[in-house]
Amino acid sequence: MKRILFSASSVLAMSVSTAYAQDTGHDWNGWYAGVQLGSTQHKTTYEDVDYDWFGSTIDLRSLGGSVGVTGGYNIVSDNVLLGIAADLSYLTNSEEYIYSSDVQIQNDVDLLASLRGRVGHAVGDTVVYTTAGLAYANFERSWTEFNDVDDTWPDLGDGKLGVALGFGLEQAINERLSVAGAFQTNIFGENSSTNPNDFTLRINDRIHTLSLAVNYKLGDVAGNGAATAANGTPADFSGAYVGGQLGGAFADISTTDVNFEEFGSTYDVGNSGALAGISGGYNWQMGATVLGVEAKVNAGDLSESYDFSQGLGDVVTSMDQIVSLRGRAGVAAGDTLLYVLGGVSTADVENNYEFFDGDTSDTYTGITVGAGVEQFINSNLSWTTEASYTLFDGKEDAIDDNEVYKGTADLLAVSAGVNYYIGASDRSQGSGALAASHDWSGPYAGIDLGAMANEASITDVDYDEFGGTFDTVSLGAGLGGHAGYNWQNGSFVYGVVADVAAYSNDESITSDGYRTIASSISAMGTLRGRAGIATGDSLLYATAGLGAVQSDLVHNEPDADDPDSFDLSDTRLGAVVGLGVEHALSDSISFKVETLYFTSNDDEYTQDPTQECDGPDGFDGEDCAMIGVDSNITIKAGVSFSF
Fold first, then answer.
1. What CATH code would you report for 1-228?
2. Would you kindly state where each structural domain of the chain is located, as residue ranges?
């Protein structure tokens, strides 16, 4: 938690420390190098595909710090920045778990590197950008069973390639130095290991980083192409369009065995594959602000199947078709549009475990958030690239009152494609960014409407319920308010904002006479720094800080006094990051659209110390403990009144 506090406050401090930078049109062209500090969260998912540990999925998390070096090259034209960036960091993420009183799990990651392209708006001394590319991480880990050497995985470490996605803001201090705050998520493919007993673990990893860098510009500081504050007008993105995309995706498809029919827990299968899609939409444009609606249909081959050992049959999972309806909100400069997106998606999911009597295959519904870049090639044709994340609340299958299964899924998709704008061929092309015409400085307050998808996880660290992690996804709506204060220096706007909202997220799964797993989020609040670029009446900003959710999370047996009943409800603290677009309607009224991602720390809850865990024979009884975690994505639309 201290590391998250440090990193979130660093982003805010970056904004304050650069308040004195003058809007002189910094020259971002050329090479740069720098150093960075940050905080990291590592999530590992172990899939017990051979039912050695009762077939369950185990989610483990660790927090750490990072220190490293950065470098890259930028080209700026008409206030649009195109560049390549690289970084190499040493990570301190190291976590040791004593699982089921008989197993020690060592779960470390010590090195993270990435090579990425980045696209952004460079206006004056400020750059807001999105980034995507390749990531590499080195993992060191083991699974040691003290009482059975042959059932041990002594080396689960592996160097793995993955995908890096993120966004950030960079602000010049002088002609040589700049500071940058950035969020990046790194998704790594599956690796596996087989022990001497011929049992296999499959392992998936995700690493989130929140960093602060100081960069030094190399070479000539008076080159051509300085990012002047007002260099023209943006392109016209209004009107109807159709498009096509190609890309790839990672999906986790899960089934929770609520009634303990097959030793309980959540069974989680990682799927990856290619996607192809078609889309159509319509944009409205007001100065630099672009608002739109879009429908997209993706088809692909995200499938995974394997045979369980012990004669338990096959596991077959897939996600073949995804349909989404979403809104887009962005800011244009030159021929480039940076946008955030949010909406609703459905997916055709096959989720079939042969040894289960139930089948949780169905059309799943979820909430989608993301960000993207669009740039005109000519007056009618543009190229696009975007990343999106969806949390699905799936299907509950109850064969009878005592045999209950629940399927859920998530999806991370990355795509590139082209859009064709229908209509006039004399569409205006971009020649730069509009000068800031609205004064964003001073206090403001307003109201928000939102939608949230929350994933609550319970990890049975003492093997009381035969181990594993129980996942529950809930979808809900929210209503709340916000207040904040902005400072403005030319086109650079920075400030602080606090918000709180009540949410209706509520999900409960019950097996009569056995247990209930229930999760609800009644409220969420954040305290964040935000910083961005003002152009025309528009503001494009990045934001990061602290978040808190009021989480009601329980694992209940029919008798509340049963030692297998756990109340993991709490006000859970964590980090929150996001992107947003705000547009001024008048001198005092503006509206905004933003998407946020929140993740909490692990909170451990111990049951009555006079009770002992009811684990399987051969395991020592001890105080029972379970870990509760919440993470969510939110889409928020708000109206603000400035004083």
1. 2.40.160.20
2. 1-228
Q: What are 393-414's pLDDT values in tens digits?
A: 988 876 665 677 888 999 999 9
What tokens were used for 577? 């990051």
Please state the φ and ψ torsions of residue 222, each to the nearest 5 degrees: -125, 35
Cβ atoms of 336 and 80 closer than 8 Å? yes
- Map tokens 């699974």 to a residue: 143
DSSP bridge pairs for 600: 574
- Is residue 207 within 8 Å of 186, Cβ to Cβ? yes
Query: Which three-class secondary structure string do you get for 294-327?
Result: EEEEEEEEEEEEEECCCCCCEEEEEEEEEEEEEE
Listing DSSP states for 50-63 in one string gives T-TTTT-EEEEEEE
Q: What is the DSSP string of 340-386?
A: EEEEEEEEEEEEEETTSS----EEEEEEEEEEEEEEESSSSEEEEEE
Compute the distance between CA of residue 328 and CA of residue 326 in angstroms, rounded to an integer. 7
Task: Work out the angle at residue 458's Cα, subtended by the Cα atoms of residues 112 and 143, and round it to the nearest 5 degrees.
Answer: 50
Pairing of strands 625-642, 603-606: antiparallel
Would strands 362-376 and 538-556 be described as parallel, antiparallel, or unpaired? unpaired
pLDDT of residue 242: 97
Do residues 633 and 452 make contact, with C-beta atoms less than 8 angstroms apart? yes
CA distance 402 to 558: 13
Considering the entire predicted model, what is its pTM? 0.91
Identify the segments of the chain with pLDDT beneath 50: 1-23, 224, 615-621
Residues 6+ apart with CB under 8 A from 161: 134, 135, 136, 188, 189
Long-range contacts of 217-224 (CB under 8 A, 24+ apart): 217/27, 217/30, 217/31, 217/32, 217/175, 217/176, 217/177, 217/178, 218/30, 218/31, 218/32, 218/33, 219/30, 219/31, 220/30, 221/27, 221/175, 221/176, 222/27, 223/27, 223/29, 223/30, 224/29
